[in-house]
């Protein structure tokens, strides 16, 4: 029987731990350096594995970034759900918006990556499932709060665009972060209780 031990990497990352180690490394790099700072070589170095190890698990950098985006959408759903749990029934949908904004502002690089479809695999089944759950949660609560009304799908789309757009503007520094995210989201969402969105073509073609 050979006394030769497997390489340290193989001992440390047995049973799938390599995947998690690479993801943790990539998340840390994303937070520190932005998406441009996340490379397979840097992920391997940060995780303490061979240069080729991340590629064996994820195929390429897009695979790593897709895994990160999936985690982002899962955490976004948790943030929205936790925010809603603390709200009164009539404020659930605006609390959801506050949870959306809070996740975005507290995880700016991660949030940005989640919507950079040119850097990930947007047709990945796990990505579609994770992003779909976030969208379905948003849609369900908007319909619960504002439906039935004939323009509910337009209300849904405009509220998502406003929620996402405000978060993006705050991240870029073009809009100041409000002192109270819940109150800010409530002001935005409650506008649609009595005010319909603009009709098709109202602002020109």
Automatic annotation (TrEMBL):
Domain HTH tetR-type span(s) in chain numbering: 16-76
Keyword Transcription attached: yes
InterPro entries (alphabetical): Homeodomain-like_sf, HTH-type_TetR-like_transc_reg, HTH_TetR, MT1864/Rv1816-like_C, Tet_transcr_reg_TetR-rel_C_sf
GO molecular function, one term: transcription cis-regulatory region binding
DNA-binding region listed in the record: 39-58
Keyword set, alphabetical order: DNA-binding, Transcription, Transcription regulation
Name of the featured protein: Transcriptional regulator
Lineage, opening ranks: Bacteria, Pseudomonadati, Pseudomonadota, Alphaproteobacteria, Parvularculales
